[in-house]
Amino acid sequence: METKMSVDAFGIIMATIMVGAAVWVMVNIRRTSGKKKTKDTPQTRRERAVWAWARIVTSTHGAAGLGKMVRVMLEMEVHLPGTPAYTATTTWLVEEEALEYVVTGKEISLKVDPQEPKFIYPSGSWAKDVE
Hints:
Helices cover 30% and strands 34% of the residues. It is of the alpha+beta class.
C-alpha cells in the first residue's frame, strides 16, 4: 500500500513538473515571437558605422546645383576591417571644391554600417550621403 502511494505521488509530481515546463516553454515562445524587429533609421545606421577605406573604381557626377553641391555616383572597392574587400555603389552630394577627393583611382576614408555594408557614409564635411 505504501509503495502504491509513493508511485501515485511520484506520478502526480512528475505530471505537475511536465505541465509547468510546458507552460513555461509556451510563455517564452509567445513572448519572443511577439517582439517586432525595429526598423533601422538612417540615424541608427550612421551611429553604428565604423571607419573603413575605399578605392574609387568609377566616379560620375553631374552639374553643380544649389549650394554648389554636385551629385556624385561612386563605385568603390570597400575595405572594412575584418572582412574581405567588396564592391559597392553609393551616391553622395559633394561640394564642388572637393570633387578632387572622389576621382577614379583615389583612396578615401569613409564610414560603413557593419550590419548593412551597403550603407556607406562620407567621413568629411565636404560630402553628404543621399539615402
